[in-house]
Amino acid sequence: MQHLMSGAALFAQETGVEHRAAETAAPQPPAEVLLQIGNVAITNTIFTAWIVIIILVLVAYFSVRRMRDIPSGAQNFWELVIELWMGVAERTMGHRRGRRFMPLVATAFLFILFSNRFGTLPIQYLYIVNEHGEEIPVLRSPNSDLNVTAAMAILMIVLAEVFEFRSLGFGGYLKGLLIPNPMRWLEIFTRPLSLAFRLFGNIFAGEVLLATILVVAPFVMFVFIGLELFVGLIQSLIFSMLSLVFLSIATAHEDTHAGHTDEEDEGAIAGVTHGQPV
């Protein structure tokens, strides 16, 4: 009986140690500060965001600097991404508006997708020691920082409101705010909150889960890495698709004001393609 009690106590002690180690390894909601430039604090999430931007620019440049009529390799991949998002954008908001907003939405998708990968790669466990003797991870997914996701969400909603103002004019925009539905004001504030917290919550929870599993059960780590890769892809799609829908709703009146429809635009393009007068 004494041996049984000693074994239970030892198991409880080991479990407690693993629990404390998991709590220590798990990332915290505030992004850690890597360095201070004057009064500006550079966090690891911002530093990682810069790296993602540099990677995307360099990969895009070296992939398409020698364009071929018959694409292959990296050019084929980027053309596939563009064609897929072009198809989604045109089905959502028509040919003319889809071509206008596709670059913005596709860029947001690629940035979020590549940023999410930094939450699942082993390189996120590279640390430096700050002036207080604390270990600070050098790289961390930008989307695990609410400041980053909120900035992207606010940017998308502000752009949607600006385009809606241009589409309706001052009078029409003011009328849309007050007369049809006074709850429109609430919608303006809840949209960025929904975009920001959904992306931040899922990515941050994934990083906490991976850090915990690495301490508690590292032999099943590959299962959760695959799960988080899938979740990162889904969250990238959700953020981009919702942004596309918000932009589509904001500019729905443009075709009516312009006096033509997307079908007429497509017919005009087809006429030019076949050498027919428009």
Percent strand? 5-15%
Structural class: mainly alpha
Biggest sheet overview: 2 strands, antiparallel
The helix/strand order is HEEHHHEEHHHHH
Q: Give me the count of strands.
A: 4
> What is the averaged pLDDT score?
77
- Which of globular, elongated, flat, extended, rod-shaped describes the shape? globular
What report would you give on this structure?
With 278 residues, the chain is mainly alpha-helical. It has one domain. The protein contains 9 helices and 4 strands; from the N terminus they run αββαααββααααα. The protein has helices at 2-25, 44-64, 73-93, 95-117, 146-178, 184-216, 221-250, 254-258, 262-273, and strands at residues 33-37, 40-43, 127-129, 135-137. It has a two-stranded antiparallel ribbon. A two-stranded antiparallel sheet has the order 3-4. Strand 3 (127-129) and strand 4 (135-137) form a beta hairpin. Helix 2 (44-64) crosses helix 4, helix 3 (73-93) crosses helix 4 (95-117) and helix 5 (146-178) packs parallel to helix 7 (221-250). The protein is globular, with a radius of gyration of 24 Å. Residues 1-24 and 260-278 have low confidence and may be disordered.
Summarize this, please?
The protein is mainly alpha-helical and 278 residues long.
Q: Any descriptors?
A:
278 residues; mainly alpha; two-stranded antiparallel ribbon; 4 strands; 73% helix; 5% strand; disordered N terminus; disordered C terminus
